[in-house]
């Protein structure tokens, strides 16, 4: 419990400490290229992700960084824990935005950073808004910004994976970007396995080879989701 309280206080201070840089990032010149803007903006989320892992006392082992393309990608990842997001921000070594639930927009400071990171907020209870969110994500990918999806739709809170939903794979198919399968393992041991009390754990982040358009163009969404899930599951 002491570690949990310390970690929460540390994380709150981390968030508040980003305010000066947040104001500077909001004033970036609109003429900057997507790559340059992402590079500048994501310095803080990357540092924040590592800070959250440090606060939990956990360690992260990364495998397969050489598989990360320089171009925009759709990162497809399994979802074990709330700590998956800081692990991806801090250790994937690539500027990324997230397809996020719309409720996160209520969080001050955090939601503003997410907008700068080109995150897309999705209200799964509103079909029309969900479709618009997918369209927005496709445009971001076409414009050179990478996005992360968790196709299970919710945290598994353990090692077992839920079935991948097919809808979010429209993001790759409609934009033509590579799919980057990423496997996270052990994050649930930081929080969810301990009655939501933070404890140190060892996390492995495994990046598999990208699936390029030439490989998936003849697959339907069900086949593509199952193929991607198989790759991710094989690294657990």
TrEMBL record:
Signal peptide: none annotated. Its EC number is 2.3.1.51. Pathway: Lipid metabolism. Keywords: Acyltransferase, Lipid biosynthesis, Lipid metabolism, Membrane, Phospholipid biosynthesis, Phospholipid metabolism, Transferase, Transmembrane, Transmembrane helix. It catalyses: a 1-acyl-sn-glycero-3-phosphate + an acyl-CoA = a 1,2-diacyl-sn-glycero-3-phosphate + CoA. The chain crosses the membrane at residues 6-23. Pfam families: Acyltransferase. SUPFAM superfamilies: Glycerol-3-phosphate (1)-acyltransferase. Residues 73-187 form the Phospholipid/glycerol acyltransferase domain. It is an enzyme of class 2 (transferase). GO terms for molecular function: acyltransferase activity. It comes from the Bacteria. Belongs to the 1-acyl-sn-glycerol-3-phosphate acyltransferase family. The HXXXXD motif is essential for acyltransferase activity and may constitute the binding site for the phosphate moiety of the glycerol-3-phosphate. NCBIfam families: AGP_acyltrn. This is 1-acyl-sn-glycerol-3-phosphate acyltransferase.
């Amino acid at each position: 419990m002491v570690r949990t309280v310390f970690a929460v206080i540390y994380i709150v201070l981390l968030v508040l400490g980003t305010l000066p840089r947040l104001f500077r990032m909001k004033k970036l010149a609109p003429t900057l290229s997507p790559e340059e803007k992402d590079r500048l903006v994501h310095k803080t989320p990357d540092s924040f992700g590592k800070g959250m892992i440090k606060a939990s006392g956990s360690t992260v082992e990364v495998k397969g960084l050489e598989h990360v393309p320089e171009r925009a990608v759709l990162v497809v990842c399994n979802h074990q824990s709330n700590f998956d997001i800081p692990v991806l921000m801090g250790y994937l070594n690539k500027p990324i935005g997230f397809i996020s639930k719309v409720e996160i927009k209520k969080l001050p400071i955090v939601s503003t950073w997410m907008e700068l990171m080109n995150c897309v907020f999705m209200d799964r209870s509103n079909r029309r808004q969900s479709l618009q969110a997918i369209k927005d994500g496709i445009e971001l990918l076409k414009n050179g910004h990478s996005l992360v999806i968790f196709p299970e739709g919710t945290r598994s809170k353990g090692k077992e994976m839920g079935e991948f939903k097919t809808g979010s794979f429209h993001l790759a198919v409609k934009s033509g970007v590579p799919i980057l399968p990423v496997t996270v393992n052990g994050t649930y041991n930081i929080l969810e396995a301990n009655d939501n009390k933070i404890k140190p754990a060892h996390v492995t982040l495994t990046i598999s080879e990208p699936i390029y358009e030439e490989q998936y163009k003849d697959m339907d969404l069900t086949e593509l989701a199952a193929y991607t899930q198989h790759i991710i599951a094989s690294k657990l």
